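Hey,
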Amino acid sequence: MESRSRSVLKALTWRLAALGITVATAWAITGKAEVAASIGLADSTVKLLAYYLHERAWIKVEYGRMKPPEYQI
């Protein structure tokens, strides 16, 4: 099981990378850095929360997890 702080750190590092991609794409399309930054920040804020909630929900799903052995030496 992952800690909440690990889930937060994973979400933050992913969103930083995705923010750069979104801003670069928006800038290439609009040619305006301010608009690109606004789009990137709005996108990242929404998706950061969505990613965290998605990660926390999947922690509760048992599908595909390997169970630890009943006895270990």
